[in-house]
Amino acid sequence: MWSNQFEFGGSQRLRTAFDLQPNGLNAARHLFASVVVYSHAFEVGGYGLDPLKKLTGLTTGDLGVAYFFSVSGFLIARSWIRKPKWNVYLWRRFLRIFSAFWVCLAISALILYPLCSLSAGMAFTRSNWLDGGRYMFVNFLL
Predict the structure, then answer these.
(1) Residue 141: how many CA atoms within 13 Å on its side-chain side?
(2) Which among 140, 80, 65 is positioned nearest to 105, based on CA atoms?
(3) Are 21 and 64 in the same domain?
(4) Are 74 and 66 a contacting pair, CB within 8 Å?
(5) Which residue segment(s) compose the domain that 93 sits in?
(6) CA atoms within 13 A on the CB side of 119
(7) 57/14 same-domain check
(8) pTM value?
């Protein structure tokens, strides 16, 4: 049954091969991103080299990045195949990328910046809030 799902004979189209039901692709991307964090932890934490790098010359992070982009490329291709119209495709990509970017921008400017300032012993004033607002405004469209 599984092997028949990916055969391209008969009337089946490429579009149906990419039309997967709920799957683990996003979970896989999270796993691969976690592998990159794991790899960086060795150097950042002062624990020496990533164990895989000692054996092969490649870090686990190198593999995590490669697999992450492979899965991401598949998902981007699937997005195009579902709706092959440039205006719709680009609008959806814009919304997907920028919505997450704007959330991260707001969190860094309105939550992390004040917390880091306070933990460093700096007074957080109205001027600091304005700096955070300017940071968001300047970086809103990258």
Answers:
(1) 0
(2) 140
(3) yes
(4) no
(5) 85-142
(6) 6
(7) yes
(8) 0.62
- Indicate whether 118 and 141 sit together in one domain: yes
Tens digits of per-residue pLDDT, 2-27? Answer: 444 444 444 456 556 555 566 788 88
* Pairwise pLDDT comparison (13 vs 135), residue with the higher score: 135
Quickly list DSSP for 46-79: T--S-HHHHHHS--HHHHHHHHHHHHHHHHHHHH
Number of structural domains in the chain: 2
Can you tell me whether residue 16 is helix, strand or coil? Answer: helix
Does 92 share its domain with 74? no
Tell me the pLDDT tens digit for each residue of 73-115. 998 998 899 889 999 999 999 999 999 999 999 999 999 988 8
Q: Quick one: DSSP state of residue 109?
A: I
